[in-house]
Structures are given as C-alpha cells and as structure tokens.
Design a protein that fits this description.
Oligomer: single chain
Order of helices and strands: HEEHEEHE
Strand order of the largest sheet: 1-2-3-4-5
Number of helices: 3
Number of strands: 5
Largest sheet: 5 strands, mixed
CATH topology: GMP Synthetase, Chain A, domain 3
Shape: globular
Strand content: 15-25%
Distance between the termini: 61 Å
Structural class: alpha/beta
C-alpha cells in the first residue's frame, strides 16, 4: 500500500514538473499576459495595453507569454487551429513584422519576435524574415 501511494505521489510530482512554466500574470478583459524572468511587470502591463488598444483582443480569451532570449523579447501567441492546416502567407508575415516593429518602438525598446505556439508554448512554425 505504501509503495502504491509513493508511486502515485511520484507520478504527480513528475507531471507537475513537466508543466510549462507560465510565469507571473497580468490580466485585462479577455487577455492574460504571462511574463517570465527577464521581462518586468511594467513591460507586461504596457504590452497588454498595446495589445488591447490596437484591437488585438477579441471576444475569445487570449493567453500570451512574454519571454526573453538573450536581447530579444519573445511574444508567444498560443495557436489558432488553422496554423495546423495552412502555412503563413506573405501578407500575414508582413503584418507580424509590422507588429514586431511597433512593439520594439512603443513598448520594449529592444528587438521583438512573435512566436506562434501550441497550447504548451512550443513553436508551431518557423517564420522567415522577408
């Protein structure tokens, strides 16, 4: 009996340890912005305000994670089902690049990369700079 309890506890701890680290969180209406170490709370709030004020928050709840990779801020957007089926087209890529430039200039004052991820925050596709 003790062995079974030990195995169950061990399995639960393993599952918890394998969960993606979401970080701290700021919330607005239908938007939750998680931010990891290297991204301060003020920048996360500024990002959430930018996202809301520029019309990127819709009717469905969005979850976004802000992370840092060296000197680059990563904006991890959880996927829309269509990215499983279609490749990103050139006009969508151009739009993402414009948003990255706006975020660099108006929010972070450093390089920004938008990463489209699955619900475990693993990148779904690699983008090519045009």
């Amino acid at each position: 009996m003790r062995r079974n309890v030990f195995l169950i506890v061990l399995a639960l701890l393993t599952l918890i340890a394998c969960q993606p680290k979401m970080g701290s969180r700021v919330d607005t209406r239908n938007l939750s912005v998680f931010f990891l170490q290297g991204v301060d709370k003020e920048k996360a709030i500024a990002f959430a305000e930018y996202w809301r004020d520029n019309g990127f928050v819709g009717e469905r709840k969005q979850t976004i994670q802000l992370d840092r990779d060296g000197e680059v801020i990563l904006v991890k957007l959880i996927e829309n089902e269509r990215f499983h089926e279609e490749l990103i087209n050139i006009s969508e890529e151009a739009m993402l690049q414009q948003i990255e430039r706006d975020l660099k200039r108006n929010v972070f004052q450093q390089e920004v990369e938008i990463v489209i991820t699955d619900n475990t925050l693993r990148p779904l596709l690699k983008r090519k700079n045009i």
